Amino acid sequence: MTWETEVTGRRGGVCAGPPDPVFETARQALARDGCVVVTGPWGAGKSTLARRIAAAGVADGRALVRVTGAQGDGAYPGGGLAQLLSGDVASRARGLTGARRGVLERLAHPTDRQDGAPGPAVARSAVTALLGGIEPGVLLVVDGVQWLDDFSADVLGYALRTLPAGRLTVVVTERGSGRPRVAGRLVGAHAPYVAPAPLDVTGTAALLAEHGLPARWAAPVDRLCGGHLLLTSLACTSLAALPAAERRGLATSAVLRDAAREWLETLPRPVRRTLALAALAHRPTSSLLSRAGCADAEEDLARARRAGVLRDGPAGEVVFQGALLASAAARAGGPRERTELHRALASAVLDPAHRARHHALVRDRPDRAAAEDTERAACSARAGGDRALAAELFLLAAGLTPADRPEARSRRITSAAREAAAASRTDLAWQAVEAVTEAAVEPARHVAVLLALIDSHGQALAELEPLFHRCGQLAGDDPGLLAAVELRAAIAANISQEDPERALRAAARAAELARAGGQPPLRAAALTMRARMERVLGVPDAARTLDEALALGVPAQEYGIRNSAQYLAARHAVFDDRLPPARRQLLELLAIAEREGDPEDLVDLWRSLCEVDVRLGSCARALEWADRALAHSAAHRLSPGPAWYTAALAQSVGGSFAEASRLAGRGIQASREEGDALYLARSLWVRGCVRLHTGDGAGAAATFAEVARLEGDRPVADPSMFRWRSDAVEALTAGGHTDRAELLLAGAEATPGIRGRGPGTVAALVRARGVLLAREGRPDEAVARLGEAAAGFRCAGLPLEEARTHLARGRVERARRRQAAARTAWEEAAELYGTTGARPWREVTAALLDRLPGGRPGDGSRAGGLTPSELRLAGLICRGASNQEAAQQLFLSVKTVEGMLSRVYRKLDVRSRTQLGAALAPDR
Fold first, then answer.
1. For residues 271 and 292, is the Cβ–Cβ distance under 8 A?
2. CB neighbours of 777 closer than 8 A, spacing ≥ 6?
3. Rounded-to-integer distance, Cα 376 and Cα 759, Å
4. 1, 316, 579, 715: which is deepest, by most CB within 10 A?
């Protein structure tokens, strides 16, 4: 089968291709050197990129000539030239003699007989004359140079070397990774080359959107296809054609299997056998494959890397470029060969759990002893923290269990489901559901497996109502089972149904049922959920309920750390701006989660720590937590919305506003499609704040209007849990909607018990009142309120919020032409942003200071005309800092530093760093 690599979407046109920087590099190389080579593995988009380059290269009217190779063409001398001459290219050349036209005619129609065929010298002369005689020049595309016959390569290479620069330009594609190996015979050994970059998760999400598919599939599809352009496009097409209920079976798509198999078949059979061993092993290495009988493992793996099938992994691990290739490699040899390979691996692996896995996969019938051995290996894997391996081993143990031991079989299936949920492996959880349905186990086990499947879905609970209904039916009158079902129902009501009152009722029922069923861990989790919803709704009993949950003494890890009373206590400390103790509590829980928690526990803790460090002004630490959350969510197939929100929040204070906006957009898309109202609102909040801070008042107002609609459907009485209202007031004010701003602010200020909430919440509302007063033309009152807000933030230990308040005060002062007061306010903000590492805010403040006229009052030195930020930069430069080093120390971009330094030179009338030092010497 031949696969078309021009990837088109539902609306037509190229919907995903090489990133623009790659295309621009290739275009520039072609213009500069007259040739460029595009390298990459099978199906990576080489032809797509070559066509784009060619389309840009013929904009001046030059002729476009193509030669497209295929496997086997190299056996036919002159075949490439015959293809080049098969059209009307010869008719476009001027000045060709009759003899040369005759040579070209024979080259265009080669025969198997050698007599009368043009020799190399004659062919070189005729083809060079042809290509040199076409005005204003020729762009030759050789697609698949690895298949081009030697005779054609020699003739075309001679023409390229001989013709004057610009007369013949060449775009060549070659299959393989890294520096070209074959194209040199045509364009020289040192020709410039580029490679289409693989898709990242963001690019995969964009391609999914082109096919009308949800963003939550971006990470799974990226893991499946490894960013490979053709495979990702085929995956999207396959997904779009499947009913929603069957999309979890994507990896079994026949189209995808055929494509992956074709890619693997570009490699020799011995290499494919080595890859099959690697695919069947758990974390394979070259040494493991050698022990399993691959004598040429290193060479085989190197060849597979050149073909793009493998990529470098950590600590020498063999990693496939996507799970699809691993699956295809494992299936390549058939059942008998797989059995032999598993036996070889069982004798080669060092870890007992992995050895048990291979022994289990060799067996094709039930075996009591083997089942018990495999179960012990599963318990060992669970104790070692490899929850996915434990789930697989428990499933294998269940499959090996004889029919006369139904209790052992159902126990193993249940354990597999729980381990799959802990690993967020929905695919393995579904296998457990299928196994438990087939086994017709008792209701308690059946409910446990179904609940584990629900848990494995993370935030994507919107479409699971049938599972809840089935669980309720199976639970019957059992209070313990009903309590577990009600607890999940409470979580779903809070996350997906935007109904905290319903969530509170379900949590209360779960707590009572757990008490009646004598299950303290479950009761503690239900009481914790009840306390969470009581806080949301402003119920005075929230603290008492949480104390009741804590008094049960259930370890935090018993029912999931994120569901524990200890974690909620830390979150309440965050809401109340008791940040140092909250951080200590979260770090203690993080240590437990790293030993015994599941992936969602870790991501939730990193998210909370990021939020805490953002408020504490520890921007670098916030970025680190966010990076961990993003990587872990992708690696463990978690719902991406929470991690994208976390990353957007961290970027909005320590990275860049542009990146924060991009990540917030991804979070909005994922949360919207998963029906996750909680994180949809939070990602919208970050986007609205970015728009507000970058001067887009209208866009900010529109974004916060959507947040208000979402939150208006949720009867939330505690504004400290999600602090969007004060930001929305500022956005509405900036957008000119002062009436709506006043209405929203007055409602927030009238919230019962607001003064007893966190001091940061109160100070933010005071700041919003100051901003609104300034817009209403009452600057004296506005400055007073902003001063009060800054003091409140300072007392609460919230430096970024204090600095933002100074910015607002400076704007009010500048609006009434009090430049010195504005400068003082902005210098205070700059100092705070500098010490906290708030890069985007530092740049905003520097720009505001730079626009103020004049220097510091009373400064008569030559440096008096410099702004404080310019003076600090000048000092660093005089002490020998490079632009890059100065940018890092001032938390600015290099481009900003370069512009600021130019202004310093202009103001001081100097032209070099030496002159700058002399100009500032009297003041230093």
1. no
2. none
3. 53
4. 579
CA distance 21 to 703: 31
Tokens of 821: 């007061």
Higher per-residue pLDDT: 879 or 49: 49
Query: From CA 701, how far away is CA 704, in angstroms rounded?
Result: 5
Whole-number Å distance between alpha carbons of 645 and 642:
5
| Alpha-carbon gap, residue 212 to 206, rounded angstroms | 10
Alpha-helical (H) ranges within 724-860 are: 725-734, 738-749, 759-775, 779-796, 799-815, 819-836, 839-850
Cβ contacts of 294 within 8 Å, gap of 6 or more: 273, 274, 277, 300
Can you say whether residue 854 is alpha, beta or left, with left for phi > 0 and alpha for psi between -120 and 50 degrees? left
C-alpha span between 700 and 727 (Å, rounded): 9
Crossing angle of the two packed helices 894-908 and 868-878, in degrees rounded to 10: 90
- 605, 589 in Cβ contact below 8 A? yes
What's the token pair of residue 644?
A: 């994208």
For residue 679, which amino acid is it?
A: Y
In the numeric block, which tokens belong to residue 244?
């929603």
Which residue is it, tokens 């970024």?
A: 800
* CA 102 – CA 91 distance, rounded (Å): 13
Name the DSSP letter for residue 2.
P
Partner residues linked to 138 by β-bridges: 63, 168
- Cβ distance 412 to 382 under 8 Å? no
Task: Let me know: does 443 contact 436? Beta carbons within 8 Å.
Answer: no
DSSP assignment of 334-347: -HHHHHHHHHHHHH
- Lowest-pLDDT range of 426-435, 549-558, 855-864: 855-864
How many angstroms from the chain centroid is the CA of residue 494?
A: 26
Q: Where are the beta strands (DSSP E) in 278-398?
A: 310-312, 318-320
Length of the chain counted residue by residue: 924
Rounded to whole angstroms, how far apart are CA atoms 521 and 500? 23
3-class DSSP state for residue 776? Answer: coil
Helix axis angle, 368-383 relative to 352-362, nearest 10°?
150
Any idea which residue has 């008490």 for tokens? Answer: 515
Taking CA 424 as the corner, what is the angle to CA 419 and CA 428, rounded to the nearest 5 degrees? 60
Work out the pLDDT band at 444, boundaries 50, 70, 90. Answer: confident
Q: Is the separation of the CB atoms in 641 and 680 below 8 Å?
A: yes
Please give the structure tokens belonging to residue 787.
Answer: 């001063």
CA dist 527 and 512 (Å) reads 9
Beta-bridge partners for 310: 320
Maximal CA-CA distance, the chain: 103
Nearest to 685 by CA among 706, 655, 659, 670: 706
Q: Report residue 248's pLDDT band, with 50, 70 and 90 as the boundaries.
A: low
Please give the share of the chain, as a percent, with pLDDT higher than 90.
50
pLDDT of res. 598? 82
pLDDT of 267 strictly over 60: yes
pLDDT reading at 861 higher than 50 = no
pLDDT at 177: 80
CB contact set of 821 (below 8 Å; sequence gap of 6+): 810, 813
SS (H, E, C) 103-141: HHHHHHCCCCCCCCCCCHHHHHHHHHHHHHCCCCCEEEE
Q: Is the pTM of this model over 0.85?
A: no
DSSP labels for 431-496? HHHHHHHHHT--HHHHHHHHHHHHHHTTT--TT-HHHHHHHHHHHTT-HHHHHHHHHHHHHHHHHT
CB 782 within 8 A of CB 768: no
Q: In whole angstroms, how far apart are CA 584 and each of 574, 575, 627, 759, 800?
A: 11, 15, 20, 20, 21
What are the phi and psi torsion angles at 311 (to 5°)? -135, 165
